[in-house]
Design brief:
Number of helices: 12
Structural class: alpha/beta
CATH topology: Rossmann fold
Number of domains: 1
Mean pLDDT: 95
Helix content: 25-40%
Low-confidence stretches: none
Number of strands: 13
Shape: globular
Distance between the termini: 68 Å
CATH architecture: 3-Layer(aba) Sandwich
Order of helices and strands: EEEHEHEHEHEHEHEHEHEHHEHHE
Radius of gyration: 20 Å
């Protein structure tokens, strides 16, 4: 077997108990909280910025810091290494010369979910899993179906009835068993948790297993590399389940342990929709966990997560980084989608547009200042949300 990974063990993010990384785990058997993969970074002898520069152009170039031991088990569609674009026109409109966009819409299946599902499915395959199940607001379902098909796994996806139509289609065409749920992603999650023991599925829900976050952390690794191993001053991130914001924070910790960056960290800014903002409410009230949001509503399906499982980790990251959490309205999201497209030529997902709407508020209240280097995340392509835009076009009569 070709040894790739420096994976050492699993550690609970709450009670700190340690478990074997080579046994199949979901959450911590002791307290039920999130498990993190830990790596033997003291023996990362073959990994260096110079060596990295000559590797393949996808997220698996970080193989030592990813959880798959044998290359034969990597399930990839070329995910990762997305561009970091200078948003000159958007930035100039606010006197910010260093505003950037991490363009995740160019991933396979059109969103950042490809990273997490590539890692989770790869490790599940390595540990002998044959069938996976996932609740999803939409994009994770499509990614699970695609990577499940690539791995030869049977895949079950459960999503709200009003999830974007394209997510239902892409899940179906990849051979997944697609079920629509009356309710929200939280209701879909309850169904998966209930049926998994009965049918022998492996649940790859957000942070309910240890490896989706490992794929998402590569966004943080890439940002560090793309900025020449100097982190930005702020990262503005659309936060539903929160895997990305948690993963990037983990990535920065690992890079510091490797000696590639110092102790400086970006302000991590969590953005939610005003119709579903459990993290924002908990942050403002000084709480360590979030209450379930009632009657969640927003056009940004990925932000319609009323009960984020890793609430305590999201809040911890935001506070440790000196960041903040704020909500924006659906009207502000729609406006931001248009402004972003007209300024930068990018049709972004509504979840992503929320980051620009938040940026404008943070500039107005001076939480962000013009000299700072700021990264907005486009987590997915707006092409998946054609129903949100009504084109006003004229018929040429010439």
């Amino acid at each position: 077997m070709t040894s790739l990974s420096l994976l050492s063990h699993l550690e609970c993010t709450n009670c700190r108990r340690v478990y074997s990384a080579d046994a199949l785990h979901t959450t911590c058997p002791n307290c039920g909280k999130v498990l993190f993969a830990r790596y033997d970074l003291e023996h990362a002898n073959g990994l260096s910025p110079h060596a990295l520069a000559h590797r393949e152009w996808n997220m698996w170039r970080w193989r030592e810091l990813l959880p798959v031991r044998d290359a034969e088990n990597i399930v990839t569609l070329g995910e990762g290494m997305t561009p970091l674009l200078h948003a000159a026109r958007l930035g100039d409109s606010h006197n910010f010369k260093q505003l950037y966009i991490k363009e995740e819409g160019l991933n396979p299946t059109g969103s950042f979910k490809a990273r997490g599902l590539s890692a989770a499915v790869s490790r599940a395959k390595e540990l002998g899993v044959k069938t996976i199940a996932v609740p999803s607001a939409g994009n994770a379902a499509g990614a699970a179906a695609a990577y499940g098909a690539r791995a030869g796994m049977e895949t079950y996806v459960f999503m709200p009835q009003d999830a974007p139509e394209i997510n239902k289609i892409e899940s179906y065409i990849a051979g997944a068993q697609v079920y629509l749920v009356r309710g929200l992603i939280s209701d879909a999650g309850k169904i998966v948790r209930t049926l998994t023991p009965q049918y022998g599925w492996f649940d790859v829900s957000t942070l309910k297993e240890p490896y989706r976050v490992e794929g998402k952390k590569t966004m943080g690794l890439e940002i560090a590399e793309q900025f020449g191993w100097e982190l930005p001053d702020a990262i503005i991130y659309p936060t539903g389940g929160g895997t990305g914001i948690i993963g990037m924070w983990k990535a920065f910790e690992e890079l510091e342990q490797l000696g590639w960056i110092g102790s400086k960290r970006p302000k991590m800014i969590a953005v939610q929709a005003s119709g579903c903002a459990p993290i924002v409410k908990a942050f403002e009230e000084g709480k360590e966990t979030a209450e379930a949001w009632q009657n969640a509503r927003t056009i940004a399906d990925g932000l319609r997560v009323p009960e984020p499982f890793a609430d305590y980790l999201i809040l911890r990251v935001v506070r440790e980084s000196g960041g903040t959490a704020l909500a924006v309205s659906d009207e502000e999201i729609r406006q931001a989608m248009g402004e972003w497209a007209r300024a930068e030529g990018m049709f972004v997902a509504p979840e992503s547009a929320a980051t620009y709407a938040a940026f404008k508020k943070l500039v107005a209240n001076h939480f962000l200042e013009p000299h700072e280097r700021v990264v907005l995340f486009n987590t997915g392509s707006g092409l998946k949300y054609p129903n949100l835009i009504q084109a006003e076009v004229a018929v040429w009569e010439g």
